[in-house]
Specification:
The protein has helices at 38-45, 47-54, 75-84, 137-146, and strands at 4-8, 67-69, 88-96, 99-105, 112-117, 130-134, 155-157, 165-167, 170-172, 179-181, 192-197, 203-208. By secondary structure, the chain is of the alpha+beta class. A hairpin with a 5-residue loop joins strand 11 and strand 12.
Length: 216
């Protein structure tokens, strides 16, 4: 079975985590300026939440990200792609001709994806930077390729453990030379990557993590 763990969405790798039930500090949250939705992400934090965090108040309930809606053009094609990638099919319902929901979950993940008809007005292929955390990136890439998925070669960031942004449906860096072929030379956690896209261009990133950073 493909060893893909929880999906992680990030505004910018390396910054503090947003406010959570475990006590993350929104007041100190930084949003990477290279993220295409940085203005909206910053606005979504809200001044009241920042003031509350500064007063030491935290959210007392879990806020669990469990579903990400993907915009696709051909629902059957998208379903076939994600099933080929090893995602578990949880649901496929179409109570009317104008509405359909397909729900799938990556192996080992607590977060699922959903797509279909009548679910979103977003442009197909417009969702980028969906992270799949894996324990062994070379094994994960090999299994995906063996299932017929086109995956980039494994690479690491020559400037350190930092991703600089997303352009054109793929993960890029400030300078081409910053993206070096092969896993991180020391196999540092959060330091090795590979990318792939679904048939509509929605972009995924494999990231190797064996031991999580404190608080993550």
């Amino acid at each position: 079975m493909l060893a893909i763990a929880t999906v992680h969405l990030r505004a910018g790798f390396g910054g503090p985590a947003p406010l959570t039930a475990s006590g993350g500090n929104v007041a100190n949250t930084r949003i990477c300026s290279y993220h295409p939705q940085a203005p909206a992400l910053k606005a979504s934090i809200g001044r009241s939440a920042i003031r509350a965090a500064r007063r030491g108040r935290t959210i007392s309930v879990d806020l669990k990200l469990e579903v990400i809606v993907l915009p696709v053009t051909d629902v059957d094609r998208a379903r076939a792609f994600y099933e080929a990638a090893g995602f578990r099919l949880d649901l496929d319902k179409a109570p009317t001709e104008d509405w359909r929901a397909v729900h799938l979950t990556p192996p080992g993940s607590e977060c699922s994806i959903m797509f279909g008809k009548g679910l979103t007005s977003a442009e197909p292929g417009s969702i980028q930077g969906l992270y799949l955390v894996v324990a062994d990136i070379e094994q994960a890439r090999g299994e995906l390729v063996g299932r017929g998925i086109q995956v980039s070669e494994v690479f690491h960031d020559g400037g350190g453990l930092v991703f600089h942004g997303h352009e054109g449906g793929d993960v890029t860096h400030r300078a081409p030379q910053a993206r070096l072929t092969g896993p991180h030379p020391e196999r540092a956690d959060y330091g090795s990557f590979a990318t792939f896209r679904d048939p509509d261009g929605n972009g995924w990133v494999l990231q190797e993590v064996r031991k999580r950073a404190p608080g993550r």
